[in-house]
Design brief:
Chain lengths: 328, 328, 328, 328
């Protein structure tokens, strides 16, 4: 028999992403809407082990929908990897009367939740929050849309100076395993070339492309490079390589770094977070467990956590083609 | 027999929207990619009648992907409503060797293209560009996502002052016939109430909601109102009505106005514009005509122009529900 | 004999302005630096009467330097106008052991402080916080620089749509008694004409200017109008007047409104707030009272509150001339 | 006898800065206002040598007041270092009927102009344009204010993620020889420590400061480092050093890089550019030469180019003190 859920815990874990606060707010308010209690768990699984809890009512999430980061903080927990750690965490939840858990984060976060569910039969629901958009089962993760806007705004600025000096810029963006940020922001920023982990076009093709770009009359160039790119050289080595082989180019490097993780979320991410939070709580109340809520074909749907963890989010072939045509 | 297309004309018409320049750029570059000529037509159908044309190569659209407005300008054309005007326009296209047309705009733009196609059997393809998102056959029109971000950023600022003074603000946003901007931006901005044309909740429900909000401890309130709202009062009358009935509220009004139409497009709108431009040109080259290219279930698809014009874009029931829960 | 100051109260009053939180933070941290206690007083003078106080240490102002609005809230107090109200406020300060007061606001705020000082000999120091920049004794009030950026960003967006349609826009900006926002933002936004309270150029000159602008080949026009402009017509009447007299113009109106008061403060305002807060506290500790701290010739200086209230901040003749030349 | 000036040339040189376009616009429009011709010289001194000139009327600078970069492009010219190069440049100016020159840039730009004036008695006037604010004779260079806003906005985003993870960030900002950006943006962004070239506080003081900060309850820290800092370690080495000595800190690095040079100029920079352009042209028309126009005590004043080059812009002692107090 399914135990009736009267109190839900919510936590954020892993790298933070814009929209996490909007998701927390949505979880809290959906609980209130259904007359369920809600408890915020600080610092992810570590706070679960340490019992770092706080009751949250609808007013405790006022004015956070537009804030970057996560008011519940995030942390990596070594203790949660151990059975003892998880045992402690489970006991804390029981002691606090918390019947179910909403976890907001990425792959690692979901893996933790899945094991926890497996060991204790504890109801869990995942919300995908990471700027990398590398989660199977959702077309958009929380923070991805905001990060794209942050990146194109930064490249728009870099282009000002690139154009003024007829320079070539290598701009490194986040995405260790997935080129979603690089591909989308590269198209959006009008990059002349985009290097992503999923496609190794080779160094020669890059040189050819840059030569063609120069010949076609372009006076400046932006190459967007995913940090996980497999071309075999990082942005600084790429700079050296191009300067050796195409001495007519004045090359600069810019690594956008952690600012990509912050900032006020875009409207898209705020609305998505609100939708996912509602679905996560209501799915738990319907007795479902061990799923991730996500967006597919514009609808909010459930994907088993196990699939979300094992599957991989593919680069869209159509986008690759659009990218190629745009750099004509 | 389908005439082979060697030169495509592109124009923008109706209200401008962020992303139109990115779409122009995509049309021009896709033509270049397929070794087709491309001609920019200034000031919409009026420029077509006046023969205000300009050859466009891939370099003529450098550095416009991030610009608001439309470099081809837009205008409403009274002459195009007359058969003589359209006859003149058709002759100008033939004289210039232009074989097909991509029109970027909204309902009115598509209606013009549809009639033109009907009268002359001329190949046309539409790209939906309007911030209102009120076009059937696409989940997103160009400019909608950007406008949402503009609105939530403005409301974030208004909330600063609303919170500092414990005030109630009525914020009017664009959307004469459709509440998409109000509903999405209202959720995104954490509005306490959202008034849209599709749903007339009545004035009493508004008062009740505001009283409940005050009672629940909220110190400030934002009510987002679509300009086409059917509640029977404009924002200024709403202010008076609330001040009379809830004298404890200090009420202010803000009409966001035309700034919603401008600004650098969001990454989403730039990528969407790039995708739609590719599809529009390639569909023409495949011999298709009289369609609108749009986004459905994350895929670029074709909808007959006639359907796009007659159909209406519905408000999402799920979003309405999310909105209700978020204002708990 | 001057009483030794051990505890300072800080409040914000009147219209809120970006930078007020940075100033609160600076007052709190400067107190901590000098081992003085600091108390936040909520809702301005009203909170002083109601004893709505809160102890503030250096950590209680973490992460507010970049927030718009005021965490201490602001309110207009009718009770403080009465001697009884002020008596009550004074008693509350004494009971709480508060020896001196820093008030952040505009003319009205300073007038209250001046009377309070006069009646009770109570040490007060003012920090000018208002977006209007209409305070004598400082070249910049807190929030002015931020508001200018907000206005030019909004007009940049409006210009996108103005240029796309060859339109004329009247844009109303804040400034009931002073044209500082209109003049500076008008120059910054490249306005074709600027109407301010300090100069009534007359309607005929406006028509002439618009005709000259059209003749010179400008395809769109922005006219920035201060809300307190003395030309005798508000922006909506101006629109009608121009449409009647210059029917070739397609005219639109945009009232920017309260968003001008909000938003994250500019770096300039944050630094200025930090400087003024230090000076305000240290001046009180030096035994000074009844002054406003302000910026003159890039230095932080003191002006007697009485002068700050009575004096008026003049429009710069050089700027008027620059404005005229820029609209050539 | 002073030759009457009928045509003025304008160029940008050295690193580009936001506001350069607004200054070009001001020079062009001030020339038009005085019925003087104006010629744009592309790519700085190199374009002067190559005769890369273009006539500019008031309409040719429409819609650039808000654009980053420089429409006249910039370049470093090796040829201009040689007497032959400068001879060629001089002859080109004479051939084109250009009587005087306005150069926009930094130290190197002014040095070139000064030598040119010295050799040929040619009238020159300098406008300080560089984000570094390292020019003697002006409190603000063009682009400085904009760069500060860009930096604080980026750090605001980084703080979101720093706070969510209780991390320490080293953020490197521009300023090879001058700490103006680091000091102002550091105060504006609420940095816990600021490292600038003008002050070597030593590594031990940094460790102490960080320990004190942790002890005081701060959960995250931002250290802003000027790229020209003299502490003896770059940001990556600083990260290692702190991790070795304060293992409780999770340290990250962010190098903001070239995006600091771009972006739409702030209102302050646009207004300043407009004022400096007017003064530069009118000073030439009054027969003055070999000066830099700049801002001192809020007034536009002239400084002999020689002094501007030799002098150095000092860090403000008051600001250093404010910085120290704010990090309490």
């Amino acid at each position: 028999m399914t135990k009736i859920i009267k109190k839900i815990g919510v936590l954020t874990s892993g790298g933070d992403a814009p929209g996490m606060n909007a998701a927390i707010r949505s979880v809290v308010r959906t609980c209130a809407y259904h007359d369920i209690e809600c408890v915020g768990i600080y610092r992810g699984y570590q706070g679960m082990i340490e019992g770092d809890f706080k009751e949250m009512g609808p007013r405790s999430v006022n004015n956070i929908v537009n804030k970057g980061g996560t008011i519940l903080k995030s942390a990596r927990s070594k203790d949660f990897i151990t059975p003892e750690g998880r045992q402690k965490a489970h006991q804390n939840l029981i002691d606090a009367g918390i019947n179910a858990l909403v976890v907001i984060g990425g792959d690692g976060t979901f893996t933790g939740a899945e094991i926890f569910n497996h060991e204790f039969g504890y109801p869990v629901m995942g919300i995908p929050g990471t700027i990398d958009n590398d989660i199977f089962g959702t077309t958009h993760t929380l923070g991805f849309d905001t990060a794209l806007n942050t990146v194109v705004e930064a490249i728009d600025k870099i282009r000002d100076t690139a154009s003024s000096h007829n320079r070539l810029f290598f701009v490194e963006v986040m995405g260790r395993d997935a080129g979603h940020i690089a591909l989308n922001a590269g198209i959006g920023a009008g990059a002349e070339e985009i290097l992503i982990p999923e496609e190794n076009l080779g160094l020669e093709r890059l040189l050819e492309s840059l030569q063609r770009s120069k010949a076609s009359g372009k006076s400046s160039s932006i190459v967007v490079v995913s940090e996980g790119d497999k071309i075999g050289k990082n942005v600084f080595e790429l700079k050296e390589y191009v300067e050796e082989n195409l001495p007519e180019y004045d090359v600069r490097v810019s690594v956008l770094g952690h600012m990509q993780r912050g900032g006020a979320p875009s409207c898209f991410d705020r609305v998505l977070a609100s939708r996912l939070g509602v679905k996560a709580v209501e799915s738990l109340l319907e007795g479902k467990s061990n799923y991730m809520v996500g967006l597919q074909q514009d609808r909010v749907v459930l994907t088993p956590l196990e699939q979300a963890i094992k599957g991989s989010s593919r680069i869209d072939e159509e986008l690759l083609r659009v990218s190629e045509i745009m750099t004509t």
